[in-house]
Amino acid sequence: MNRVPSALRPKNRWLVWLIVALFAVEVVLILTGHYQCPFYAITGVPCPGCGLTRAGICLLQLDFAGAFALNPAIYLVALTAGFALLSLLLKKTWHTQVWPYGAMMVGVLLIYVVRMALYFPHTYPLVWNESAPLFQMLVGR
């Protein structure tokens, strides 16, 4: 049976295009130097995905050490994306399974916890955003 993910069904294609548009806006903002993670901008604390986009750019430029330094979870994300792409190319239904994406998310969170324990708040990109509203409320500025 050929199962099409619900997001790709005709009635939900707008959702796919919305995600593509948001991603395109993020890429433009990153390339022009005007992007900041909303979680980081509000809380002042890096999120689990902090550095993933920049790590992805390093990976595309074959700077493996730079990608690892920014966020080692990029390798889990790339592996999962490769798994989904291979599934689509081979016309299999593997990409519709939940476990690879769940495993990736658990891995990203575990890497985040380890990185925060070892490197926060003294190693870039795991540093405080002192201009964040929540940070300023907590420190009383």
Rg from alpha-carbon coordinates: 18 Å
Helix amount, in percent? 55-70%
The rough form would be described as globular
Per DSSP E runs of 2 or more residues, the count of β-strands stands at 0
Helix tally equals 7
In whole angstroms, how far apart are the ends?
A: 60 Å
Give the low-pLDDT segments: none
Mean model confidence by pLDDT: 83
Keywords: Membrane, Transmembrane, Transmembrane helix
InterPro entries: DUF2752
Protein name: DUF2752 domain-containing protein
Organism: Bittarella massiliensis (ex Durand et al. 2017)
Structural account:
The mean pLDDT is 83. This protein has helices at residues 13-32, 38-43, 52-60, 64-70, 74-89, 99-119, 133-139. It is mostly helical. It contains seven helices and no strands. The chain crosses the membrane at residues 14-32, 68-89, 101-120. Pfam families: DUF2752. It comes from Bittarella massiliensis (ex Durand et al. 2017). Keywords: Membrane, Transmembrane, Transmembrane helix.
Helices and strands, with pairings:
Blueprint: H1 13-32, H2 38-43, H3 52-60, H4 64-70, H5 74-89, H6 99-119, H7 133-139
Helix pairs in contact: 3-4, 5-6
Which terms would index this structure?
membrane; 61% helix; mainly alpha; globular; 141 residues
In a few lines, what is going on in this structure?
Pfam families: DUF2752. The chain crosses the membrane at residues 14-32, 68-89, 101-120. This protein is mainly α.
